């Protein structure tokens, strides 16, 4: 029996260490053929309030857990995922949009995320403070250390249903917090399987919950309850803004997507730039916050780049996501595919030139490339979150940087050049959280600080940096009697 079949039989969510069922269910459908994979409980507001009360106890348990126990639990959870890695990959591929090859890579990253969390748990350090730097404080000495914030709510999206959950759960446990995960209704199974890994690893009950359901059924307590001390949200800008307006006085970590640019200069390795940007544009059917959406190419190589880019895009194999031969599967739903279709149609109607793609079949939207996209189109200014890329000719680097910055997003950018001065100049001037030199915007490792500026969010993920967000410094000062 596969893990998906087991979940189909269980029909349960993980509340404070217990597997709980409810009469009202959510159907988890495969977006490729709309077949039923499993059903999970549709939680209500009473479930939310109960989970928060249990998490209060869990926060005390987690804070008292010795560091070596946190390390051991995180490593055992990573071991469990590794031992069942193909089943985890199949779950990701079935409930979401990723091909089986893409899903396997996500499982590998999840294991790495958990192991890095275990390593960073031992490095939550403070510092001594020289209180005698101030006149009159010669008889004082002290330090600060970091303590957990308490209860964290993690709201996660569909596009990385396992590793993005691990990026919130791993550092939360490493830093001694309790955490309540609310996964996307479309892809709850991977989060539940991660909860199972922590249960098998011996995580004390009440420290972790994975509550499944629709926000309309659950009320707003997960956001507004005063016991919640931090919200870690990954999703769209409008939803992130709504959460911040309602949440009250809480810590916030917000990763809100982007409209990522890549710059290709005349001295770039053209083959490398094409291969990297095509992959960056169409990974996970373009449903990737780091996905390449805009490419600015210096005019001297523009036509050559366009030809190679379109040719490589047309080689992309779209189809059954469980096939080893497939490069790209469906979008998460037909509704989303229709939205992307309407954005492309809008651009074409306003004068954009469709170079390839622009075709939809159900929830599949084929890799699409456009040029001459007007500045007032959605594709130019908003996050498409689909397999669509726009390419623009530019006279020089300064123009490319200006256009790259001319949106209300700033997560990551890429630049291809052999000129170190130009690369460093772009690093300084691009208004983003990360610049990938001779890589597309979608390159990331799980140990680096990850986040953006402007509409792309607040705070940073990446284990070491998430740990800082999930802890607070406490100052300790001793007034020592007598002279030294």
UniProtKB/TrEMBL annotation:
Keywords: Oxidoreductase. SUPFAM superfamilies: ALDH-like (SSF53720). Gene3D superfamilies: Aldehyde Dehydrogenase, Chain A, domain 1, Aldehyde Dehydrogenase, Chain A, domain 2. InterPro entries: Ald_DH/histidinol_DH, Ald_DH_C, Ald_DH_N, Aldehyde_DH_dom, ALDH-related_metabolic_enz. Residues 19-476 form the Aldehyde dehydrogenase domain. Belongs to the aldehyde dehydrogenase family. This is Aldehyde dehydrogenase family protein. It comes from Halalkalibacter alkalisediminis. The lineage of its organism: Bacteria, Bacillati, Bacillota, Bacilli, Bacillales.
């Amino acid at each position: 029996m596969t893990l998906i079949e087991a979940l189909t039989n269980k029909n349960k969510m993980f509340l404070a260490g217990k597997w709980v069922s409810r009469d009202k269910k959510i159907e988890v459908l495969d977006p490729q053929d709309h077949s039923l994979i499993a059903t999970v409980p549709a939680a209500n507001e009473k479930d939310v309030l109960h989970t928060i009360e249990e998490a209060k106890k869990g926060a005390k348990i987690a804070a008292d857990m010795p560091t070596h126990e946190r390390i051991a639990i995180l490593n055992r959870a990573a071991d469990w995922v590794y031992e069942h890695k193909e089943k985890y990959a199949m779950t990701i591929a079935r409930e979401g949009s990723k091909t089986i090859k893409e899903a396997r890579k996500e499982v590998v990253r999840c294991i790495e995320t958990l192991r890095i969390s275990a390593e960073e748990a031992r490095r939550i350090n403070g510092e001594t403070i020289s209180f005698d730097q101030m006149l009159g404080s010669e008889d004082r000495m002290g330090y600060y250390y970091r303590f957990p914030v308490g209860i964290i709510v993690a709201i996660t999206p569909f596009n990385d249903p396992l590793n993005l959950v691990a990026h919130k759960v791993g550092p939360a446990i490493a830093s001694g917090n309790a955490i309540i995960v609310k996964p996307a209704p479309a892809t709850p199974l991977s989060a539940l399987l991660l909860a199972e890994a922590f249960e098998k690893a011996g995580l004390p009950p009440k420290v972790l919950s994975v509550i499944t359901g629709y926000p309309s059924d659950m009320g707003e307590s997960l956001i507004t309850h005063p016991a919640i001390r931090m919200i870690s949200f990954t999703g769209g800008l409008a939803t992130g803004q709504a959460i911040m307006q309602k949440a009250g006085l809480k810590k916030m970590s917000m990763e809100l997507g982007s409209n990522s640019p890549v710059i290709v200069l005349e001295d770039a390795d053209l083959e490398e730039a094409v291969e990297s940007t095509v992959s960056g544009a169409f990974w996970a059917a373009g449903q990737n916050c780091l996905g390449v959406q805009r490419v600015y190419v210096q005019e001297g190589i523009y036509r050559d780049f366009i030809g190679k880019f379109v040719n490589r895009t047309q080689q992309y194999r779209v189809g059954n996501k469980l096939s080893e031969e497939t490069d790209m599967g469906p979008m998460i739903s037909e509704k989303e595919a229709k939205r992307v279709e309407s954005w492309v149609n809008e651009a074409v109607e306003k004068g954009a030139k469709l170079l390839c793609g622009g075709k939809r079949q159900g929830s599949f939207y084929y890799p699409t490339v456009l040029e001459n996209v007007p500045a007032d189109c959605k594709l130019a200014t908003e996050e498409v979150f689909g397999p669509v890329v726009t390419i623009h000719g530019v006279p020089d680097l300064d123009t490319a940087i200006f256009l790259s910055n001319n949106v209300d997003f700033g997560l990551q950018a890429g630049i291809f050049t052999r000129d170190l001065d130009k690369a460093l100049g772009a690093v300084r001037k691009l208004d983003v959280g990360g610049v990938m030199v001779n890589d597309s915007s979608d390159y990331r490792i799980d140990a680096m600080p990850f986040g953006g500026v402007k509409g792309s969010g607040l705070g940073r993920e990446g284990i070491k940096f998430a740990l800082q967000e999930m802890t607070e410094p406490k100052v300790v000062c001793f007034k020592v009697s007598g002279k030294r």
